[in-house]
Design goal:
With 380 residues, this protein is α/β, with parallel strands linked by helices. The protein has two domains: 19-211, Nitrogenase molybdenum iron protein domain (Rossmann fold), CATH 3.40.50; 225-376, Nitrogenase molybdenum iron protein domain (Rossmann fold, 3-Layer(aba) Sandwich). Helix content is 29%, strand content 17%. The chain has helices at 9-12, 102-106, 126-133, 148-154, 169-176, 192-196, 199-206, 209-229, 257-264, 284-291, 306-312, 320-323, 341-345, 350-361; strands at 43-47, 50-55, 66-72, 85-89, 94-96, 114-117, 138-139, 158-161, 181-183, 238-240, 243-245, 248-252, 268-269, 279-282, 296-298, 327-329, 375-376. The chain has a five-stranded parallel sheet, covered by helices on one side. A five-stranded mixed sheet has the order 13-10-15-16-17. Helix 3 (126-133) links the parallel strand 6 (114-117) and strand 7. Helix 7 packs antiparallel against helix 8 (209-229).
């Protein structure tokens, strides 16, 4: 079990985004049934005033999942299976463990509900940083350094975590203290809009299903409009992605979330025919052989210039995209403490990612706005 943002190399390879000047939150009535269009990682069944929420695959390769029974605080708990976790709703406070959870609260107008987080410097949200600066969010520590006494003192309605394996780690200890743990598996969704749709998952715990649906519809509408703009263009620039870590080049598989974004942006991802949903681990030579003539290189970790890339490995300069200076990073924006806005909001706003990619790949379709999250790397 890992706390804080999923800042492993696999996630640093590609996805990119940040928050717009104004959030898309909409005040609407509650009590709307949850209907899913893209997300496959959770299921909802309403039983009277209670809700059964199931996460069938909380991590890659999981053979069993978790079911949560959400019961209003003034309603008797219905009979249920012993392995079902009961949670009283609406929750009044929450502890999150990944920066990608933060926008879900912001867009539900539940920013004030966050009371604890592992390492506060990772958070970039301006709204959340106001609370942090006012001392209203407690720093809890990471992994085995988690301060259980502070967590117990907060007594949150839930701790929202994520799992990379069957190791439930600190989460088991938290549950033993009587604090419910809910696993958010948004990162396993392969469709960009599927990841964004997890706002509906979080909304269930606040009884804000209608508001979540309204926010998601706006994101979906913008995303599909951008996708439609590229559907008839004959130009399909080829794209490569990723960089070398150690001796291995990590890049998105052909059925990965990143590959879908490139396809929807009217690009031809070099590994588009690959059937894997995760990340490929290839040698430099294998990547060069297939991608050395790619038009664009999008997603180069934390590199800030072509010079820095070349200094790291002179072989990078052999790629056509390097020679034509068509190399793009995703670090155009950082939070007040240096946190990655890209990692924090990327799942929630795929429409903003797609807008950037369309502008990069099809400048003839660009609206005239500058790139919002990505940036073209300068020579020096």
């Amino acid at each position: 079990m890992k706390f804080v943002s999923r800042c492993s190399f696999c996630l640093l390879i590609f996805i990119s985004c940040t928050r717009p000047t104004q959030p898309l939150t909409i005040d609407t009535p509650t009590d709307s049934l949850t209907k899913l269009k893209y997300a496959t990682g959770f299921q909802v069944r309403y039983d009277g005033q209670s809700k059964y929420v199931t996460v069938p695959a909380p991590y890659q390769g999981a053979t069993k999942g978790f079911t949560y029974l959400l019961v209003p605080n003034d309603v008797p708990v219905p009979a249920h299976e012993p392995n079902v976790r009961v949670i009283t709703i609406p929750i009044q406070s929450i502890v999150c463990t990944s920066t990608s959870h933060i926008p879900l609260l912001d867009y539900l107008n539940e920013t004030q509900s966050l009371t604890g987080f592992p390492s506060l410097d990772y958070i970039s949200s301006p709204r959340m940083r106001e609370r942090i600066d006012a001392g209203q969010v407690t720093e809890l520590g990471i992994d085995k350094g988690l301060n259980m006494e502070r967590l117990v003192a907060l007594n949150p309605g839930i701790v929202m975590g994520y799992a990379m394996s069957s190791d439930y780690g600190q989460f088991k200890k938290i549950e033993e203290l009587g604090i419910p743990v809910v696993i958010n598996a948004e990162y396993l969704e392969n469709h960009p809009l599927g990841r964004a749709e997890w706002i509906k998952f979080v909304a269930l715990f606040f009884n804000k299903e209608k508001q979540a649906d309204s926010v998601f519809q706006l994101i979906e509408k913008t995303y599909l409009r951008l996708k439609d703009q590229t559907s008839t263009t004959a130009n399909r620039p080829t794209v490569m992605s990723g960089v070398v870590y150690g001796d291995t080049w990590f890049l998105p598989g052909g059925q990965n979330y990143a590959a879908q974004l490139l396809k929807d942006a009217g690009c031809k991802y070099i590994w588009n025919d690959d059937l894997s949903k995760g990340y490929l681990e290839l040698s430099f030579e294998a990547v060069y052989q297939k991608a050395h003539q790619a038009d664009l290189w999008i997603g180069v970790a934390s590199f800030t210039s072509l010079k820095e890339i070349k200094q790291t490995d002179v072989r990078y300069q052999r790629f056509k995209s390097f020679q034509t200076q068509q190399v793009y990073s995703y670090d155009a924006r950082k939070g007040a403490k240096g946190g990655s806005e890209y990692l924090e909001l990327g799942y929630m706003r795929p429409d903003l990612i797609l807008r950037d990619l369309v502008q990069i790949a099809h400048p003839e379709l660009a609206s005239g706005d500058s790139l919002y999250f990505h940036r073209r790397l300068p020579p020096e």
